[in-house]
Amino acid sequence: MVAMPDPHPPEALSVAAVIPAYNEAGTVGEVVRVALELTPDVVVASDGSDDDTAAVARAAGARVVELAENGGKGAALRAALDATDADVVVMLDADLTGLTLDHLRRMLRPVLDGTLDMSIGVFEGGRFVTDWGNKLTPHLSGQRVCRREWLRSVPHLGEERWPEPAITAHLKSTGAQWSYVELPQVGQVLKEKKRGFWNGVWARGRMYADLLTFRARRKKS
What we know:
The structure is a single chain. The protein is an alpha/beta fold. It has one domain (about 10-190): Spore Coat Polysaccharide Biosynthesis Protein SpsA, Chain A (Alpha-Beta Complex). It is built from 10 helices and 9 strands. The protein has helices at about 30-40, 55-60, 75-80, 100-110, 130-135, 150, 165-175, 190-195, 195-210, 215-220; strands spanning about 15-20, 40-45, 65, 90, 95, 120-125, 145, 180-185, 185-190. A 7-stranded mixed β-sheet has the order 3-2-1-4-7-6-8, sandwiched between helices. The chain has a two-stranded antiparallel ribbon with strand order 5-9. Strand 1 (about 15-20), helix 1 (about 30-40) and strand 2 form a beta-alpha-beta unit. Helix 1 runs parallel beside helix 2. It is globular, with a radius of gyration of 16 Å.
């Protein structure tokens, strides 16, 4: 595979953390606090949240973009990318647990030194359910590091409720160099715990339906 060009020396690259969030008031604050240890440029895009996500993220020190309606993770990610001019972005889910500065540095390092165009974080030793799901479909992980302009060039990024398949497809079509980076002891709060069992099951089913139909939907468009 052909690596993307590196027009700037690593020391000149600026870094931002971008965090799409929908009703994640219980966890977003801690994710923001860890991200701020890496960079002062932390942007949370609240995707039409109807809880205190925006207020909690702002109190924790993030710049917050509030979307009036819930448009999906892709729309929130696009809004967060538009709110920073950093060279490199660290994508993080807002419901992570166990995240540390070392995890962020593990993902960031190979991109800054030019070894990878994108690193993708996968859970290891966090929680069985989230570990299992992450390892079964690591290409769907929301923890990624790459150039901001490259990510903005992903076709239909802002239209995808779950943008990870579109990002992965663009990695393959552009010949980018990418690899997985283990994130020990990191996990996510299950949807069934956040939203109640049946609402969580419904949300999870909707997510997987969207993810699994990505190719079919894009062939028709």
